[in-house]
Amino acid sequence: MLKDKRLFLLDIDGTVCIGERLISGTKQFLEAVKESGGQFVFITNNSTRGIDDYIRSFQKLGIATDYTNFITASYATVQYLKKHYEGKLIYVMGTKSLMRELKRNGIRITVDCQDPEIACVLVSYDNQLTYEKIMDTCQILSTREVGYIATNLDYVCPIEFGYVPDCGAICQMLEHAVKRTPQYMGKPGTAMVESALKLNHYPKEKTLIVGDRLYTDILCGYSAGVETALVLTGEATKEEAEKYQYGPDYIFASVEELYQKWMEA
To answer: I want to staple 154 with a disulfide (CB 3.0 to 4.6 A). Which of 47, 145, 166, 259 is the partner?
Structure first.
């Protein structure tokens, strides 16, 4: 039941923020969660920022956070690479922020498509994307037997004027050229949820996943066995949610309505 929830696993883009703007009610909700003795953790597929970047960004918005409040697709990617490609060279098509995060975690990376040591290609949402990067990535995937992973499945990323292509859309573009599909690291995979549950010691019954996408946030909750709440401030509509095979347990107009209903409960 909603009143029993104490661990809130929240998406960021389209759920608590639109671009750099905080969605109404977010600050009050997060403060109420902490005052109740609960915890909030942002589980985001956005890999353009490291956790340090997010902490600074939320500080500007008046919300105090630290490393315990974030588990990102970048984090899930790092864990996968450490397990499957320890010490091996990874070619990265992504932002400088993602590359810094990978280096900080001891991952060997390159942007030189000619390097003979490349063992795996990693693709992410890249707001610094160039056609040269696309060509280099296609060259590796078309001519070598290497691993191929991507940070997240999201097709679009919400910004102030609407949407722009996200990692999933970039990978679909590459697929038409190289006939390969990556293994996706972020939601709807359950690694971030499992990490959050383990680190915060809450049972699934007291946990709620909150997001704006059906095929990532809501499907992730279904797969993890955790209740979900869809907010209508991002990609999905109420009509789509009602038809979706793995529909959410709750639907709210925004995080502000979630806050009000949770307080009333």
So the answer is: 166
98 pLDDT more than 80 = yes
229, 230, 233, 234 alpha-carbon torsion, rounded to 10° = 130
In sequence order, which residues have a C-beta less than 8 Å from that of residue 178 and are 6 or more positions away? 138, 141, 142
Backbone angles phi, psi at 8, to 5 degrees: -110, 120
Measured between its terminal Cα atoms, the distance across the chain in Å is: 9
Record the pTM.
0.82
Q: How far apart are CA 109 and CA 120, in angstroms?
A: 10
Answer yes or no: are the C-beta atoms of 226 and 208 closer than 8 Å.
yes
Distance separating alpha carbons of residues 123 and 253, to the nearest angstrom: 33
pLDDT digits (tens, 9 = 90+) for 22-67: 999 999 999 999 999 999 999 998 877 778 889 999 999 999 999 9
Segment 68-78, tens digit of pLDDT: 999 999 888 99
**pLDDT score for 177:** 98
Look up tokens 């709210």; give the residue.
Answer: 252
Q: How far from chain centre, in Å, is Cα 172?
A: 18
Q: Is the dihedral of CA 34, 228, 75, 196 positive or negative?
A: positive
